[in-house]
Amino acid sequence: MPYLAPEIILTALAIVLLLLEAYGAISARSVGIWSLVGIAVAIVVTLFTEVGAEPMYFWTDPNAAEGTAGKGLYMWDATARFYKLFFLGTTGLVIWMSMESAAQPVGPKTQPIRAEFYILPLFVAAGMCLLASAADFMVLFVSLELVTITFYILVAYQRESATALEAGVKYLILGGLATAFLVMGIAYVAGFAGTTSFAGIIAKYNTPDHLPVAVALGLLMILVGFGFKIASVPFHLWAPDVYQGAPTPITAFLSVGSKAAGFIVLVRVLNEAFGPTAYATWGPALTAIAGCSLVLGNFAAMHQRNIKRMLAYSGVGHSGFILMAVLSGGVPDGPGIAQAGMTAVAVYLATYFLASLTAFLVITIVSPTPEEESIRSYNGLWQRSPLLAAALAASLISLAGIPPFAGFVGKLGAFVVALQFHHYGLFFIAAISAVAGLYYYLGVVKAMFWSEPLEVTPIQVSVPTQVLLTILIFLLIATGLCMEVFAWLVR
Predict the structure, then answer these.
(1) Which domain holds residue 416?
(2) Whose CA is closest to 122, among 46, 239, 215, 37?
(3) Do the Cβ atoms of 68 and 199 come closer than 8 Å?
(4) Which of 39, 161, 283, 401 could form a disulfide with 279 if both were Cys (CB 3.0 to 4.6 A apart)?
């Protein structure tokens, strides 16, 4: 079945590579190359898989009532294809970063990258692709746990480092707590609805009446679980330490892939399992979370001196901007989230993907050891490698939302949706937070171009990575200049 092709390709390839590596039949670098080839094949298959005007459902229950739980566990639509391509592209760039990281000198407490470091992201990508098509809470939970458990391993991969072990333990404990909230919420909702199917739940509760108290409580618990995945306040406490302690490629994966996975399941549940009636429950909660994320994320990032911790707090702020687009709900007889909001979420995530992964690719090269992650290490980077400085500057300016870079398109969409749906208070908070973001993003740019370098040794960059960085810089600029074309492609 072509609709399941990405999941099948990634899982089968990961198992084969694990077996080959276990018997010593393949080198670690070859595993990385074959992983990239498998991802490229999955991308091509996904691109050329037909998408109909209406969602297609699979694994249906023939005994279920027509129009309710019988729609199936797995769905295929344009949204699923977009996010599958997003996750595949993210995984490909993360594996590329990992191969680049393996070529860098390692410190005394840094474990060399082995083959499984390239294989485990394939399982993460398979789980994320399954999440994009989840139409039932059972599929959602199983695929989400596949992603989360694999991340537990990857975060603590550098087990010789106390910082990495601390990050792994924090992520494990807080991740387990978030999972407990999620399971309890699903139990409340599914128990009262009598089904775990999104279609069955919305058929029962998308009525003019308010949600039953138990179902509303279950929905709020589910939001707690998703809040951990997107690193929004007050569920963000794991992010700074985990971003700092994890290997840089995995930090990038958490920053982009895990956040996007959290948002796709969030919009799926609010759109497919709950209609506009439920907005009275989740709307005020997400409004408060968005406002707190914008303020705390951006203002806390201003005080960071470690570049990965700075990007962790800025990621919390970006979650607030994306939640502004999610809050385009509550329209009578409409979906849980309006189409304008869905498009704004996708556009923001796509621009965040380009900027954030570009930044982490540069960090992988410039800061191969934890001791070199201080922002001071980037002083005078322009003199050591003009390309790396230009790429990091382009990514940070994009994250700040300055035109004509890609990030401006994402922020503009979020602000327009906030005004369109009358979230004026949130709009004002976001505007102040965006100005605060200029301070710490441009502070790094200033250090790269106008500060004296701590060392003058030129940084060597491989030719393929030079080409990749050049392409990413071009995309960051072209996306901002051709915003209408880019938004059309996302839709």
Answers:
(1) 277-491
(2) 37
(3) yes
(4) 283
Residue 63 lies in a domain: no
Give CA–CA dist 281/336, Å, rounded: 12
Tokens found for residue 107 = 């410190």
Residue with tokens 């979420």: 345
Task: Look up residue 347 and give its amino acid.
Answer: V
Q: Is residue 132 in a domain?
A: no
Question: How many whole angstroms separate alpha carbon 384 and alpha carbon 343?
Answer: 40
Instruction: Return the SS3 of 16.
Output: helix
Beta-bridge partners for 57: 75
Residue 177's CB is within 10 A of a number of other CB atoms, namely: 15
Which helix (H) or strand (E) segment holds residue 187: the answer is helix 162-193
Residue 42: pLDDT band by 50, 70, 90 thresholds? Answer: very high
Q: How many domains does the chain have?
A: 1
Q: Is the CB of residue 100 less than 8 Å from the CB of residue 365?
A: yes
The string of pLDDT tens digits covering residues 305-334 is 999 999 999 999 999 999 998 988 655 555
* Encoded tokens for 233: 């306040």
Number of H helices, E strands in the chain: 20, 2
Bridge partners of 56, per DSSP, are 76
Q: 317 in a domain, yes or no?
A: yes
Q: Is 489 helix (H, G, I), strand (E, B) or coil?
A: helix
Q: Find the radius of gyration of the CA atoms of the chain.
A: 22
Q: Check residue 67 and give its pLDDT.
A: 43
Give the pLDDT confidence score for residue 112 in this predicted structure.
Answer: 67
Angle between helices 28-47 and 116-132 in degrees, nearest 10: 20
Q: In the chain, what's the furthest Cα-to-Cα distance?
A: 71
Give CA–CA dist 114/116, Å, rounded: 6
Would you say the pTM of this structure is higher than 0.70? Answer: yes
User: pLDDT (tens digit, 9 = 90+) per residue, 414-447?
Assistant: 999 998 888 899 999 999 999 999 999 999 999 9
75 DSSP β-pair partners: 57
Cβ atoms of 11 and 119 within 8 Å: the answer is no
Which residue type occupies 463? Answer: V
Measuring CA to CA, how many Å separate 426 from each of 28, 57, 177, 229, 409?
48, 37, 29, 22, 18
Residue 43: alpha-carbon gap to chain centroid: 18
3-class secondary-structure state, position 51? coil
- For residue 50, count other CB atoms closer than 10 A to its CB: 9
Residue 257 is assigned to a structural domain of this protein: no
